[in-house]
Amino acid sequence: MSNRMSLYAIAKAIEEEYFNMSESGEVLISYKTVGRRFKQFIKAFNIDITLLKDENNVIYLNGTETVFVQAILRESIDKNGFLYRLLYTDEIIDSDTAALEKVSSFMDNMFQYMTGKISDTDRDSYMVDLDRNLKYSALLELHHMHALVEELYINTKPMLYLQQLYFLSEFRKKIAKEFTHSIVKITLHTTELAELIKDYKIVTEEKHMDYGDELEDDTVKEYTQRDRDVFDFLEENPLIKEHIETKLNMTIEEIFL
Q1: Which pLDDT value is given to residue 61?
Q2: 234 touches 241 (CB < 8 A)
């Protein structure tokens, strides 16, 4: 495979591939549509498309990037597929069985398409990035927890009703205790993070937190996304938000945005 391939060439290759698959001789998807799907993918994952263009305003991709993008674009063609719906309908990914099955199918297809075309190391790196962006593994764990709770209830059916009620009540109390502990931990964690960012902005007089060039790009993105997620979390939890704003005498908008 060539070291570099333009987005146009990739899109034309996909158009030709699907044309050859057409029994009617019609173009099933045009290269222009494929190009638009790529731009929508870039937009959805907050990637600056100008950074991908050369001095002639053309997008070129290297060998491993080409394979990854080909896999992504192929997955975006099916309007009933997970990726298309994610890009164009802002579909929320959750732990619902049907939703996870679609994501699992997407992840499996991506893995299979890249296998043998690029090194296992590069393939696994792309899969890790997808997992992180989609929070797939975390949602899968949540799904497993839901299933275990349901199985736990089923396993109490042979008990006398009062025994069943007592057992489930005690289990609920354990979960409630863990939930309380998690709230305390997250409050301490978000307060410490807010203090760190506030102090950084005061000392440097910068408007935004700089995580440094010495970090890998993916790490920088992860920290930046973490800050956005913390802000969204605080917006959804006004008591913790009020605690931090009172303690630091600064709004969370001033701190995290």
Answers
A1: 92
A2: yes
Express each pLDDT in 178-209 by its tens digit: 999 999 999 999 999 999 999 999 999 998 88
Angle at Cα 127 formed by Cα 124 and Cα 130, nearest 5°?
155
248 burial type by CB count under 10 A (0-12 exposed, 13-18 middle, 19+ buried)? middle
Q: What is the pTM of this model?
A: 0.80
- Helix (H/G/I), strand (E/B), else coil: 115: strand
Instruction: Please enumerate in sequence order all residues whose Cβ is within 8 A of that of 126, keeping only pairs 6 or more positions apart, or say none.
Output: 64, 68, 110, 114
Q: For residue 1, name the pLDDT band (cuts at 50, 70, 90).
A: very low
What is the number of other CB atoms lying within 10 angstroms of the CB of residue 123?
A: 22
Please name the amino acid found at residue 197: I
Q: Is the pLDDT of residue 158 over 80?
A: yes
Around 11, how many Cα atoms within 13 Å sit in the side-chain half-sphere? 16
Cβ atoms of residues 29 and 77 within 8 Å: yes
Measured between alpha carbons, how far is 134 from 192 in angstroms, rounded to an integer? 27
CB 72 within 8 A of CB 83: yes
